[in-house]
Specification:
Strand content: over 45%
Oligomer: single chain
Number of strands: 11
Radius of gyration: 15 Å
Structural class: mainly beta
Order of helices and strands: EEEEEEEEEEE
Distance between the termini: 40 Å
Length: 124
């Protein structure tokens, strides 16, 4: 089994910063894409940022220039540095990972796993 454990959420004033972390643990062969998504009350879950193994990144337009995603492959951890936070960033933030597991001799399966979510509230 693979587990993703997030940390770093909380309450912050507009213009402030937070850093989210998400560590993967368990038995797996490799972690491919990792990413952060968020879901505000009454809204769908949207992509915030993604990062592949090589470090190439992709961001939602609403967070470009304010958020930075990074990963430490040795620690199986993905981070989201959030700066200049706005009230509109308030949401539950979820990390996700595309994980390759071994299912047999030279056989692999890729599955997407999600963290439990961490609340971010931006309010004065």
């Amino acid at each position: 089994q693979v587990q993703l454990v997030e940390s770093g959420g909380g309450l912050v004033q507009p213009g402030g910063s937070l850093r989210l972390s998400c560590a993967a643990s368990g038995s797996f062969f490799r972690i491919d894409n990792m990413g952060w998504f968020r879901q505000a009350p009454g809204k769908q879950r949207d992509m915030v940022a993604t990062i592949i193994v090589s470090g190439s990144t992709n961001y939602a337009d609403s967070v470009k220039g304010r958020f930075t995603i990074s990963r430490d492959n040795a620690k199986n951890t993905v981070y989201l540095e959030m700066n200049n936070l706005e009230p509109e960033d308030t949401a539950v933030y979820y990390c996700s990972a595309a994980v390759m597991t071994v299912i047999g001799p030279s056989k692999y399966r890729q599955s997407t796993y999600w963290g439990q979510g961490t609340q971010v509230i931006v309010s004065s």
